[in-house]
Known about the structure:
This protein has helices at about 15-50, 55-60, 60-75, 95-105, 105-110, 115-125, 125-135, 140-160. By secondary structure, the protein is mainly alpha-helical. The chain has one domain (about 30-160). The mean pLDDT is about 95.
Amino acid sequence: MPVVRDFRNYPYSQPRIERCGRYLGRSSYWKLYAIENILRVVIHSVLSVQIGPAWWDSAVTPRTMRGVNETRRRYATHPHHTAPGNHDIHYIYLSTLNNIIRANSNFFLPIIPEIDQWIVRIEGILIPRNLIGHMNFPHTADRQRIDDLHREISALLLRLNQKNVAIQVPR
Length: 171
């Protein structure tokens, strides 16, 4: 398979732009999608066990709650578009998910002893996530960070299962 290079370094070519898009979709975007949604599941699962089913009200800052409420209002004014989900956790981004983990690390620590390293790993893909999410082409090191975190978060889910943490999709 030929190497796909950032289209911005070459004269205009629609096929080159489309190759870049297909490449990022196949190689990185789907992993970011999985990482962000698995993280939602991990947060919800751990905090449901440690705090209770209504963990959101005590684990999230008022600022985050206001942001979620504003986003919900924007979606409500456009009912013909698909809303992110029912649970409030679906209305926040990776950086805010990481802030929830950081602020509630005492609840994660008994189940995920290396929670501080997870916070750092997630922080390490925030810029590449935004870069790809805004349709730009990351360099090899950023794509590798995403690959590594995807592999590690998949392994984390297995460990949680082995610790008998009920894996729950936030609804």
